[in-house]
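Archive entry: two folds, one per protein. Generate the first.
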Amino acid sequence: MQFNEKLGAVEAILFASGEPVDESRISEAAGIDKSIVSSMIKTLNNRYSDNQSAINIIHIGNSYQMCTKKEYAEYIKAALEYKKQTPLSNAAMEALTVIAYNQPVTKSFVENVRGIDSSSVINSLVDKGLLEEDGRLEVPGRPVAYKTTDVFLRSFGLSSLEDLPPLVREDKDSQTSLFDEKNDNNQYDE
């Protein structure tokens, strides 16, 4: 098979799948060396860019997926009559953040960080496909551990968890409370 034919095979695999396809699976199915898959994807993306195509291929972890470019989302929604996804609640974003940065974690870990019951929020995130179970921990009670999914990565425009922005930690020493501050005008100070 010549280069263009193999390139076409990679493109066809991604087009037909509709889901992320692992790099090794692409390599095996197209009969190419795994080391050239990423360069073939770049070649395809360059072609799409040169032709002002609405298509591009995104990298998610060790997988690739053929998608439409973001700027065409409104046209697709109109044509396919997609219902607008409701945005995630603050509680869902908090829980998702805790899990994304600490995964795999248990529901009780999320609840300890958030300080509130998170069962319904976690169930909702699982239903939306943003979270999935990651087995059970080998501790008493064998609680379920949760982790983010490829849907999470796609939804937030990430290739991998390493693309998450760094967490900004609050410095407790720089914060003062009403009770920590010494009020110079307090008539009761001696």
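Generate the second and append.
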Amino acid sequence: MKKLLMICGLLFATVAFANAQQGGGRMMAAPEERVKQLDEKVKLTDDQKTKATAVYTAAADEMKKMREEMQGGGDRQAMMEKMQKMNAETDTKLNAIFTAEQKTAYKVWQDQVKADREKMMKERQAGGQ
């Protein structure tokens, strides 16, 4: 019986540790993963992949700085505005490397992501009442 409890405790600790390492699932995907997703949606050339990786890496670095500021007691509303501005700048930089066809595919994809996010938020709000 003691062995069983010990094994269960170890298993629980291992699972908890593994989940903690993943950052809780709320972190932004790595730039390489974001480029991979982007490539699946808009079919990037190798040169575009390199440029998109640079754009996403710069955005990730900026986001990391913003999160550190927020943890230091920064103004949440101001932080949200900065993040929205940064996201718009990232979109502008990405659109600059796309062809007209890719811009259309990217817009369709972003609209779908936005619709999915809004749907999820509504479901959360409805479930919490």
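Annotation attached to the second fold: Residues 26-98 form one domain. The helical segments are 2-21, 31-42, 46-71, 76-97, 100-127.
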